[in-house]
Amino acid sequence: MEQIIFIIFLLVVGYCLKFFDFQQNFAQGLNLFIIYITIPATVLLQVPKIHFDTTFLLPAVIPYVVLIVSILIVRIFFKNESDNTKAALYLVIPLCNTSFFGFPMLEALVGTEAIRYGVVYDLFGSFVILTLYGGFIVAYFSGDVVNRKTVTKRILVFPPFVALFVSLIIGELPSVTIPYAETLSKTLVPLAMISVGFSLQLRLAEEKVVFFKALFVKMFVLPSIVFAILYFMEFRGIIALTTLLESAMPSMITAGALAINAGFAPRLTAALVGYGILLALLSVSMFKHLFVYFT
After folding, report:
1. What percentage of residues in the chain have a pLDDT greater than 90?
2. Which of 97, 256, 250, 272 lies closest to 202 in space, CA to CA?
3. Number of domain units in the chain
4. Residue 270 and residue 259: Cα distance in Å, rounded?
5. Contacts of 187 (CB under 8 A, 6+ apart)
6. pLDDT for 170
7. CATH number for the domain including 171?
8. Contact 246/121 with Cβ under 8 angstroms?
């Protein structure tokens, strides 16, 4: 739980920096470093560690179910919002903070064994969706006219996607480079949380209704749908519980940073990420007890 407390601390630090003499583009600079350096280093380190067998299918598939349901919800229930708002929601609603917030929560609520299934959900779900789907959303909503060739090009040169492609080809990094990659990877949480905290707005004004509706969908509706799937298909045990809890995690910090960097409703995005983390301290535990009670 110390890592969760540290995340909250960084969020508060980032928010407090707003009251000092920092440039308004301070967060944008951090986001660019995260997208071009930190995430690729993390992908190159983590992807080669996964060894698949059939037990990993459930945590590998559910993230894409969450993605499809999220897209439908945004299209139906947020159809009257601006393109920037919808773009932000397309990023922060389906993508969960399944590693740096998720792993400590899994260890605290389930145990160390749950981490291996959480890694599958994160790397083959969250990270792949972030690189492919996240790159597509940014490309599609960034310009007035974006053709298929332009979108494909932007996805292919998106740094996390390049890193994923490289890691699948070369496998583990040469041992001499691993310490340097680890150093870069460790900057993800502090930089991303400070960036989000710096962008956080406690008063949402005209976005308040959208915020509460989106937060409710993210933190309660989506994990409830996953719980229903697991329950009626009779998935039980630690793999199913881990999958449920990962789907209940708050919005991915990196997805929020990506949306803010692209100019997609930055106040709304930062609030959903920041307040989602605080709410998840209670809601994730609630879904754990719900699962145990009914199964």
Report:
1. 32
2. 272
3. 1
4. 9
5. 33, 34, 37, 38
6. 87
7. 1.20.1530.20
8. yes
25 phi and psi angles, rounded to 5 deg: -90, 15
pLDDT of res. 44 = 87
Amino acid at 158: F
Q: Which of 83, 86, 66 is nearest to 218 (CA)?
A: 66
**Is this structure's pTM higher than 0.85?**
no
Helix (H, G, I), strand (E, B) or coil at 96: strand
Residues 195/10, Cβ–Cβ less than 8 Å = no
Cβ(62)–Cβ(121) below 8 Å? yes
Residues in the chain: 295
Quote the DSSP letter at residue 251.
B
Instruction: Write out the two tokens for 50.
Output: 């996964």
CB 222 within 8 A of CB 70: yes
* Structural domain harbouring 85: 2-19+28-197+204-294
State whether residue 29 is helix, strand or coil.
helix
User: By CB neighbour count within 10 A (0-12 exposed, 13-18 middle, 19+ buried), where does 209 fall?
Assistant: exposed
The rounded distance, in Å, linking the Cα atoms of 154 and 264 is 17
Measure the CA angle with vertex 132, ends 129 and 137; round to 5°. 95
